[in-house]
Amino acid sequence: IPNLVREGLGPQGTALLSITVHxxxxxxxxxxxxxxxxxxxxxxxxxxxxTPLDALDEVLSDLDMVLIMTVHPGFPAQxxxxxxxxxxxxxxxMLDERGLPTELEVDGGINVTTAPRVVSAGATVLVAGxxxxxxxxxxxxxxxxxxxxxxxxxx
Length: 155
Fold this sequence. Notes:
By secondary structure, this protein is an alpha/beta fold. The protein contains five helices and five strands; from the N terminus they run H-E-H-E-E-H-E-H-E-H. Strands 1-2-3-4-5 form a five-stranded parallel beta sheet. Strand 1, helix 2 and strand 2 form a beta-alpha-beta unit. The N and C termini lie far apart (34 Å).
């Protein structure tokens, strides 16, 4: 992966990139994480809803970000998977216990109702698709509403 990225960018390299890989897509996650780090890019690992947190055991201290999927990847406008909140809580505890500054990102079904719940559970980065890009409000209005929904939430 890193060689392809480096070749595609030419002399600019990967210093400003963040590459996120799905744990489920890597036969040797440690090797992929190491290669991405060595390329100069930041590295993240995404976990699908059914993938347990122990998939991160050997790489957690090397990661800049972990992405918890709260819907099944590849299918837009799905309902938020409620069990994912507990996964966010458990991952936040793991990161805090180890003193890791790793970003905890959540993607899937994020809106004004779910955003405060995952931020309260420990998320530091939110990805919102249909709650932002829709026919009901402008992008700016939608982003403002999500930001307002988490403004007073502590994790």
